[in-house]
Structures are given as C-alpha cells and as structure tokens.
Task: structure prediction
Amino acid sequence: MALVRQNFSFAESLLHRWTSRYKASELDERGLSLLARSTALQGDLMRDQGAVVGPLSAQRAYANARSLYTQLEIPRRVAQLDLSLAVVTEMVGELETAARQYEDLAADDRLSPRDRARARLWVGTALSKDGNHDYAVSVMETAVHVFEDLAEQEDWSVAQQKLALAHRGSGNLDAALRLIDLARSTGVTEWPMQRVRLDTAYGHILLSDPATLDDGLHVLDDAATEAAQYGLSHQLRSITDIRRTADGAARPTRR
Result:
C-alpha cells in the first residue's frame, strides 16, 4: 500500500528489511518466493521514481526477480517480469523493440487475459510514441474491447487516455478531447501517480490547440508540482519535455 500511495521512503524501508536480510542460497522455496516478490516490488519502486536503468535500477531488480521465478519454475511470474522489462525498454526510448516485446507477450499464454490485453494496449502506446498513430489506435481499440469483456474498469479508462493521446498525435483533436474527457470522468485518481498521468495527458492534448494553450500549461504546471512533491521523476521529465515542445504543438511549422 505504501508503494501504491507513492510513499517511497516507507516502502523502500519495508522492502529493504526483507531483501537485505537473506541470501537466495539460504532460503527454502517459500522464502525464495517472498524474496522474488519483494525484488519485483523494488523494481516497481525504482521505476516509479525514474531509476530505470543502471546498477540500482528497475531493470536490474526485474531481471533479478525474473531469475528467482525461473529458478522456482513459475512461468506466469516470469512472463509478468518480461512484461515489466518491456515497460523499461519503452521508458528508455527503445520504442520499436518495446513494441515487438509487447506484441509477443500479447499472445503469450503464460499471462492472464488481463495482462495480455495490457500488453496489447502497450503495443499501441509504443507505436504512438514512435509516430505510428493510426495503427496504434487500431491496436488500442482491440485492447479496449477485451477490457470491456473482462469488466476491467480501471484498465478500460486508462486505455481511453492512451487512445486520446494517439488521436492527438494523428491530429484528430475532437476525438482526443472526447476520449480524455471520458478517461477523466471514469478514471481512478485516488493516488498521485494516477492523477499525474491523467493530468499530463489532458494538458498535452490541450496544448495541441492554440485556443486552449494556456489551460494546458496550467494543467501541466499543477501536474509537475504534484510529480515533484511525490518524487515521480520520470513523470516530471515527461512533463518538462512536453512543455519544451509547447510552441510547436500549438501552431504549425513555418515553411
């Protein structure tokens, strides 16, 4: 719960008590399972703080957790770590590679239907970030239908948010505004990360129209303040990048 609330210091102290106390060679199967789960959570903690690659990073923690689950012969957990590692690949900007990894995992029977649908959605996210907006919309819409069938309301709402950004990228601002309004009215915003992600998407879309440029900057300023308050470094960098391109997004390039 501390991690979900973005109470990173407390979450880190709890996880460190377990991961620093034992070595894998000293543990039985149950202990290894707890260590693997704690290590995977450490990866989530580092990812949310923006420590994505390097010796003390989400990538390293996920790889270590994956190794433990491989040792335990738990294919579903191994596949979930593969999905987390694909997210890291996307976060460092290797979009084509991430899209291929997501594509493979979207058809991987080791994962639950929900996780396969999330992988499908993230194929679209990577494609949209890489400029392939129209195909991204098609892929994301497939994931939306699966979330509907599975009655996964939160995932469905997040998909509307990502669809909105893909439509923004293709220049379809009417669809983008309709979908981001839907995401804002149905999304879960109980925790800081959820609010910051949704506000960042909303602000990004508002910046795309000169008539709503000032509103978009205001929304992004508020999102940046909250991201900084809770140590959401990756989100803060994303907001900064969006702000830097505000002029280009708001008006056409001069020839």
Residues 249-255 have pLDDT under 50 and may be disordered.
